[in-house]
Every structure is written in C-alpha cells, then in structure tokens.
Amino acid sequence: MRLSEGVEWTVHCCTMLAGLPPDKAMSAKKLAEFFDVPPDYLAKHMQQMSKAGIVQTKKGPNGGYSLAKPARDITLLDMVEAIDGRICSFKCTEIRQRGPSGVSPCQYKTPCGIARAMRKADQVWRDELRKTTLFDLQMIGLTETPPEQMNKAITWLKGLFK
Amino acid sequence: MRLSEGVEWTVHCCTMLAGLPPDKAMSAKKLAEFFDVPPDYLAKHMQQMSKAGIVQTKKGPNGGYSLAKPARDITLLDMVEAIDGRICSFKCTEIRQRGPSGVSPCQYKTPCGIARAMRKADQVWRDELRKTTLFDLQMIGLTETPPEQMNKAITWLKGLFK
DNA sequence: TAATAGCGGATATATTTTATCCGTTATTTA
DNA sequence: TAAATAACGGATAAAATATATCCGCTATTA
Predict the structure, then answer these.
(1) Which ranges in chain B belong to alpha helices (H)?
(2) Which residue range is the domain that position B153 belongs to?
(3) Is B96 on the interface with A (CB under 8 A)?
(4) Minimal Cβ distance to A90: which of B3, B118, B120
(5) Which member of A49, B16, B105, B144 has the lowest number of beta carbons within 10 Å of its beta carbon?
(6) What would the pLDDT profile of B44-65 be if each residue is shown by its tens digit?
(7) Rg of chain A (C-alpha set)
(8) Per the CB < 8 Å rule, is B95 touching A12?
(9) DSSP class of residue A107?
C-alpha cells in the first residue's frame, strides 16, 4: 500500500511552480535538475498533471509548466489523484460469492460490510487530503525552508531566467 | 496504492472464525476451500495473522485457526496492519535535500509540509479502520448474508465438523 | 531555421505481489 | 506407536506493477 514516488515529485514541483514569478514557466528538465530526479520520468508525471488540469504547458524555448489555476484552488488530493488515480485502495473481489456457499449474484443487495468499511476509510483519507491546498504547502515552504537553502534556490532560479 | 488481496481474504476468514462454535478451529486448507482462494498463499497470510496475535493455531488433525481474542477486541485496522504493515502510505525521500539548493541535513528541523499532510491523512485512514471491529463485521454478515447462502454455509460447516 | 519543449507510444528494467513447493515440527486419532 | 493432519519457515517461480529511457512528432520561440 504505497503511493507512487511520482506523487512526492510532482507535489514538490507544483510547490515550486507556485513560487515562480507570474507568466514564467519551468521545463520538466529544469524541474528534474532542481530536485535531482530522472528528467524523462518526471516529464511523464508532469504530463499527467497537465491532463488533470492542474498545470498548463507552453511549448518551445522558455516554455514549460506553470500552474493552471490559483494555488488556493489546487488541493493535495487533486495532485495525488492526478498521479495515483481515484480508485479505492481496497479492491473487493466479492469472494463471498465464490466457493461452496456462494449464491446467484443478484441475491447480494449491498456491498459487503468489509468493502463498505474500507471505502469509508478511503473516503476520510481523501477528505483529509482535500483539506490541504497547494497554497498551504507553499506557505509552509516559505516559513520553514532553511534560510541557506532559500538563498541557494533563489540564486539558482535567477540563473534560470537570465 | 492498493491493499494486498490478502487483506480481503484474511478479514473474511476472521469473520468466518468469529462465527465458529467455541473450541473449534478451521485449517487454512478448509478456509481456502470455503472462499475458493489458493490454499498455500492463504496459509502464508494466516501465518501473519497468527504472528500478529489475532488468531491462535493448533497443529494436527482437527487443528487450524481460531480467534486469539474476542471479536470485539479485534479491529479492522489490526487485520489490515497484520498483512500490510504499519508504514505510512507516503514515503518521503527528502527530495528537498537533493539538487542544487540542498543544504546540510541538520538544517532541516521538521519533516516537510507535504510529508506531514500525507502522514495526517494516513493517520485518519487508520483511525477510521480502528472504528470497525470484527464483531461489527460479524453482525453485518449475520444480518445481510442472503438466507440461501447462510443455509449453504451452515450445511457445509456441519459436514466439516462431522 | 535551429533549438527548445511538451506529448504519445514503444520498450526496457526493477521491484513487488502473487503463488507454489518442500522439509520440519507438533499433535491427534486410529 | 504409526499414519495422517496441520502450522511454520525458507526457497523459488511467475505475474503484475512501478520505474525509467528513448524516439519521433508537433508547436513555439529566438
């Protein structure tokens, strides 16, 4: 039961994008360089973010990714679901219907209690993720990032945009 | 992000064990037959349940698995964690420390905001799973199982215990 | 027009999940 | 006491998924 590594990468990337000057974009290559992750694989993940409408893209030189909407309107759940999907973490295979005591499918009126409890837990998990927005994460980053790292990051970014 | 199939199997098995006459046990082989799942693989999972102290075992003929404590004292979380472990679904690889802006590890005083939000969501998920006990699941089974299936199951069980 | 950059598809590699098998020990029943 | 049953641990094997790379395509910019 583990989330894809891509979730960590793309959420960090979005936090980065949220801090960019407006009308600036950042390519997958540059994001990958900044976080030291595989460029091609990160690009694949960012394309999923684009499909999900979280980031917008611009082709060509000085193109790249930028947020498609205000950071306040992007939830952690949005980003998690863009990478890992919306399907419940518990997959019910209806084993109650199998074996020597199983009866015709139409006799099972409700999902079994186990599946219901699991889905409820999955729901509260998603509800909790929805409470955190990209804006929240950006604020936490701004206040908690070590000063020395903040300086290095700003310097690196200045080099990026000439 | 998906739970192991073993979770579904073992929770159903425990619900079955909860309905057994006291001092009766059921072998992995019989459980596998009842639910129509691979016997050896189910046995592996049941061994994990045993290690976790959820079921107790008895070797030899008429041996097998039975609950190690009252169904009220076994939560869905206990069973999920017996199979899938207690580690958070989000693994933070500290990518903030990598790349050109990373600084010495000792400068990072708290886990990053992303990891904290993810861990909180994982926590509410586990809290929710803890609310359901095996007794609850047993009651749901008793009230919602199709009558025809209930009869078939009882007949099958009678054959089991001679 | 050359370089940049996203995109989609194909493919390769690694890791995890699922599944089986075997030898051992403990226990029960005939 | 012997034979059958059953849990247990370890070693593999097979299948599925996650991770990673590469290529050609189109759009865009300097």
Answers:
(1) 5-18, 28-35, 39-51, 76-84, 113-131, 134-144, 147-160
(2) 5-86+133-160
(3) yes
(4) B3
(5) B105
(6) 999 999 999 999 999 999 999 9
(7) 21
(8) yes
(9) G
**Is B156:B34 a contact under the CB 8 Å cutoff?**
yes
Q: Which residue type occupies A141?
A: G
- Distance from the Cα of A125 to chain B's closest Cα (Å) equals 5
CATH number at residue B81: 1.10.10.10
Residue B113 lies in a domain: no
**For strand B64-67 and strand B55-58, is the pairing parallel, antiparallel, or unpaired?**
antiparallel
Contact partners, residue A92, CB within 8 Å, separation at least 6: A111, A112, A114, A115, A118, B8
Number of domains in chain B: 1
A148 at interface of B, judged by CB pairs closer than 8 A:
yes
Whether B64 is covered by a domain: the verdict is yes
- Banded pLDDT at A1 (limits 50, 70, 90): confident
Enter the DSSP assignment of B31.
H
Distance of B154 CA from C15 C1′ (whole Å): 43
Tens-digit pLDDT profile for residues A60-77: 999 999 999 999 999 999
